[in-house]
Specification:
The complex is a heterodimer.
Chain A lengths: L1 H10 L15 E3 L7 E3 L6 H6 L5 E5 H8 L7 E6 L5 E8 L4 H9 L4 E5 L2 H10 L5 E5 L14 E6 L1 H6 L2 E10 L1 E6 H6 L3 H7 L36 E6 L4 H10 L23 E6 L4 H6 L5 E5 H10 L5 E6 L5 E8 L7 H9 L5 E5 L2 H10 L5 E5 L14 E6 L3 H5 L2 E10 L1 E6 L6 H20 L1
Parallel strand pairs in A: 6-7, 6-8, 11-12, 11-13, 16-17, 16-18
Antiparallel strand pairs in A: 1-2, 3-10, 4-10, 5-8, 5-9, 13-20, 14-20, 15-18, 15-19
Helix pairs in contact in A: 9-15, 11-13
Chain B lengths: L13 H20 L3 E2 L5 E3 L1 H4 L6 H4 L4 E2 L10 E3 L4 H12 L5 E10 L10 E10 L4 H17 L5 E7 H10 L4 H12 L13 H11 L2 E2 L1 H11 L8 H16 L5 E3 L12 E7 L2 E8 L3 H4 L7 E7 H7 L12 E5 L5 H13 L3 E4 L11 E5 L6 E5 L4 E4 L2 H9 L1
Parallel strand pairs in B: 1-5, 7-9, 13-14, 13-15
Antiparallel strand pairs in B: 2-4, 3-4, 5-6, 6-12, 7-10, 8-9, 10-11, 11-12, 15-16, 16-17
Helix pairs in contact in B: 1-5, 1-12, 5-10, 6-7, 6-10
Classes of the chains: A alpha/beta, B alpha+beta.
Chain lengths: ~450, ~400
């Protein structure tokens, strides 16, 4: 969305130097509107930042606006209107391999219906209004399209119908029309004169406001055509989750050294179900952040993730059956506490006296909300507030947060943003995780053990 | 100093707490007299108990306090009890199902979000559930129980409104709505959004008939006459609902209870299947209840009819007059001893409590004016000196003598 937004703002004559895809600093000033400055955030963070009043205006997808508003309707957010680009839709989708009767069975099911989505609030709203009797929601960092049918019954995903079909999904309901939207803080909208700035990009007459209502499910089910039939997982099958993103090449190297052959991983076409030469093993590629929850829920037997995400999960669910089986040694990062260089704090003790001396709560921004929460609790930070973020967390300091809990490899990004590390929480590397629960099936148990052994060999050779 | 209380919550001060306990006490006594037994359910329940069709409306469900428990990795949530009836139905299924008739009551808090924070999000209610009987008499018993409690609390001018969920559903079915549409319309009615019904794609005649039907008010005879006029004489499909409602209304009328039938007055709970009754003082709703024959089977129990009623304690607390607070007769005594005789002082307070007196140990901070008596303990005879409000002094050598003096 950045490229389209940059083009639109350029056309509107904002003159934001440095707002482009290769931006290394996140703060930009307008050449033409002297009182306008801007900051770049992960799209998902924008509605919250505008609603709490850190920013007067924001541009982001209407999906993230509704994700906030459906759960917190009294948020101080004004939907100014759609900007008409970056159009897509949010769909409730089943696996195309499921027939219409399977879909009906899910609606009627007395047991738990598993819903996977990056939009847990909209998913809950959907489930309640669709009157599902019982549901569990997997809040995801991404790759929801890869979950049905084995790892979830239903996914709520943003995209196009063709895009969904390519992933082997069939939509059963269009939940929301999505496009880039302009939002404003309610108080700023009333108190500040932003007419000129708003008029330069938003023309009410030209742009049809995006339908932000939650749309009811399609009345009739359409015939499902499927392109991909996901492999079925029988009782003996071992289900392995591999990471997407930048952990793919170290993981691929490790698998090669362990003698595990894998096809189409990393996949140039975005295939999330690569084939392997290990008999009786199926592989799915998902976000490492989402893996511990998936192993806990029994959707996967093994997964390669980071220790940071394992801890994040265990801090939220202390009795979870997930445990580290093997340290894979790669992807070494430190999880650190970070403050602005301008803050007179050198260590955790300094934080305590800082938080004791102020009336406003200390704002702790992190992608790791449970690690951050535990850090604040363990250090008795008094009145504090954890601000969940979805990436580029450095940008929050110093205006929008006081403390970050971040991962860092070299510390260079932190230094570049005029920030300093005041504490190291722990070191994280890639690890193999599995469940503490005993695997009853002997064949499966042996397969799991042989994979662990193969990976052990791989780690030694690495 | 900035207030640190959570938005949408309230503290109950000592004075208010006395009123709370009075209401609770009157309610408990009435329930026990009618043969109901008290139960207490946990504050936390699984959310899925409340999400099925036929439990709470989506409008209610989007305001519950739900979250993932410490072992909630399956994504299933728990919830702070948003309603009093469903947990009692769950308790019945879990452990009392062998009892054909279960008459249960509870005093519990429920939690529902309210956006302005002006109304409280934690609400107290006292309720009674009559499980195992399906008859107008059972519904009437619950209404009479609620009215008795209100009368003993000296709250008068209470208005009773009757509706009937079965009848509303039958009317919606007659309009030719699909079962899905019926459920939606019923939810809108329950959420109080009758004006929004036009969005559901009903045509104008249907809408007009529906609003006219929902607008019918009055005593049973007027109501049935009105129904016949609106729907021509043919009341096919409606008769069971009408008979049931008229049965309840007739019995209430015979018992001298004033009521009005008002079909559209129902709110919030989808689980009602039969008669619904609501109690108002002025415009404020102070209680309500109704029949929910489908709830227990829906939750996985046997096919068991039931109905219940609840009174809203927060509302009642505003209505109870100070004179309704029972005068406590027991004398209130301040026991004063020299600092070195603290042990003796505490023993004395304990003795007085045992004898049924209200006694406090003097901490040096109490105001003498707040006590009927002060009791000074001395090293030399006379051992005890009692002083009344009029500063008149009485001497005693033993505690028995003190108690005799107090009894006078």
């Amino acid at each position: 969305m950045l490229v389209e937004t940059a083009a639109r703002l350029d056309e509107a004559g904002w003159g934001l130097d440095g707002y482009n895809a290769s931006a290394r600093l996140y703060r930009v000033k307008s050449r033409n509107f002297p009182r306008l400055s801007a900051k770049m955030f992960h799209e998902r963070d924008i509605p919250v930042q505008v609603a709490i009043g850190n920013y007067d205006l924001g541009i982001c997808g209407s999906d993230w606006i509704e994700e906030l508003m459906v759960k917190y309707p009294s948020s101080a957010l004004v939907r100014v209107g759609s900007l008409g680009y970056a159009q897509s839709a949010l769909y409730a989708a089943f696996s195309a391999a499921d027939g219409v009767s399977a879909v009906e069975a899910v609606w009627q099911r007395a047991g738990v219906v598993r819903i996977a989505s990056e939009y847990p609030n909209i998913a809950e709203h959907f489930a309640i209004n669709r009157r599902l009797r019982r549901f569990g929601i997997f809040p995801l960092w991404g790759a929801a399209e890869a979950y049905p049918p084995e790892s979830a019954d239903l996914a709520l995903v943003c995209g196009t119908e063709e895009g969904l079909a390519d992933c082997g999904l069939a939509p059963v309901a269009r939940v929301l029309a999505v496009s880039a939207c302009l939002v404003a803080n309610r108080n700023s909208w009333k108190a500040k004169d932003m007419k000129e700035v708003v008029a330069s990009i938003y023309d009410e007459a030209k742009v049809q406001e995006a339908e932000s209502e939650i749309i009811e499910p399609y009345p009739g089910k359409r015939p499902l055509k499927s392109k991909i039939f996901p492999p079925g997982a029988d009782g003996d099958t071992v289900r392995l989750a591999l990471p997407d993103g930048h952990q793919q090449s170290p993981t691929f190297n490790l698998l090669s050294k362990a003698g595990i052959g894998i096809d189409d991983y990393p996949s140039p076409t975005g295939n999330r179900r690569p084939a392997t030469d290990l008999p009786g093993v199926v592989i799915k590629v998902i976000r490492p952040q989402d893996m511990p929850l998936q192993v806990a829920s029994g959707n996967f037997d093994l997964a390669i993730t980071g220790r940071d995400w394992l801890r994040e999960h265990l801090y939220q669910f202390p009795t979870s059956p997930v445990k580290e089986l093997l340290d894979l040694g790669s992807g070494r990062v430190k999880i650190v506490a970070v403050v602005s260089n301008d803050m007179p704090v050198a260590d955790a003790a300094g934080l305590i006296s800082l938080s004791a001396g102020r009336t406003a709560p200390l704002r702790v921004a992190s992608e790791y909300v449970n690690i951050a929460d535990k850090y604040a609790r363990d250090n008795h930070l008094g009145s504090y507030r954890v601000v969940p973020t979805w990436g580029a967390t450095e940008v929050f300091l110093p205006e929008d947060a006081d403390l970050l809990i971040e991962n860092t490899e070299t510390g260079r990004t932190i230094a570049r943003h005029n920030l300093k590390i005041i504490d190291t929480l722990f070191e994280s590397t890639a690890c193999l995780i599995g469940s503490r629960r005993r695997v009853a099936n002997v064949v499966k148990r042996e397969k799991i053990n042989s994979i662990i052994q193969a990976l052990q060999t791989g780690v030694k050779l690495n | 100093m900035k207030t640190q209380r959570c938005k949408g919550t309230r503290d109950i001060s000592p004075g208010e707490m006395a009123v709370f306990r009075l209401i609770e006490g009157v309610f408990r006594d009435a329930c026990l007299n009618w043969g109901y037994k008290e139960v207490r359910t946990p504050t936390l329940e699984y959310l899925h108990l409340f999400t099925s069709v036929g439990t709470l409306t989506p409008g209610m469900l989007e305001r519950v306090y739900s979250f993932l428990d410490w072992d909630g990795w399956s994504g299933e949530r728990v919830v702070l009890r948003p309603d009093g009836t469903i947990p009692v139905a769950r308790l019945y299924i879990d452990s009392l199902e062998k009892e054909k008739l279960a008459k249960l009551f509870y005093v519990a808090n429920t939690f529902i979000f309210e956006a302005t924070g002006e109304k409280t999000r934690e609400r107290w209610q006292c309720g009674a559930e009559l499980i195992g009987v399906s008859s107008p008499s059972a519904d009437v018993e619950l209404v009479m129980l609620a009215l008795e409690v209100l009368q003993r609390l000296q709250i008068d001018g209470v208005k009773l409104k009757l509706s009937h969920a079965g009848l509303i559903r039958a009317l919606l079915a007659r309009l030719g709505l699909s079962s899905e549409e019926q459920a939606k319309v019923f939810d809108r009615i329950l959420d109080g959004n009758i004006k929004e019904l036009s969005e559901l794609g009903l045509d104008r005649t249907e809408l007009e008939t529906l609003s006219a039907l929902l607008g019918l008010k009055g005593k049973a005879s007027t109501f049935v006459k009105g129904l016949k006029e609106l729907l021509s004489p043919d009341l096919a499909g409606l008769q069971p609902g009408i008979d049931d409602l008229v049965g309840v209304a007739g019995l209430l009328e015979a018992l001298g209870a004033d009521y009005q039938i008002d079909l559209a007055s129902v709110r919030d709970f989808e689980y009602y299947t039969g008669a619904i009754f609501q109690l108002f003082k002025g415009k404020g709703k102070i209680g309500g209840g109704g029949r929910y024959d489908a709830l227990i089977p829906l939750m996985g129990g046997r096919d068991t009819p039931a109905s219940g009623v609840a009174l809203y304690i927060d509302r009642l607390m505003e209505l109870v007059k100070p004179e309704a607070l029972a005068k406590v007769k027991a004398p209130k005594i301040l026991v004063r001893v020299k600092p070195e005789a603290a042990q003796e002082g505490f023993s004395l307070v304990a003795r007085l409590h045992k004898a049924g007196c209200r006694a406090e140990f003097n901490l040096g901070a109490q105001k003498v004016a707040g006590f009927g008596w002060t009791l000074d303990v001395q090293a030399k005879a006379p051992k005890y000196v009692l002083t009344d409000r009029a500063k008149k002094k009485f001497e005693a050598q033993t505690i028995s003598e003190v108690l005799k003096l107090l009894a006078k």
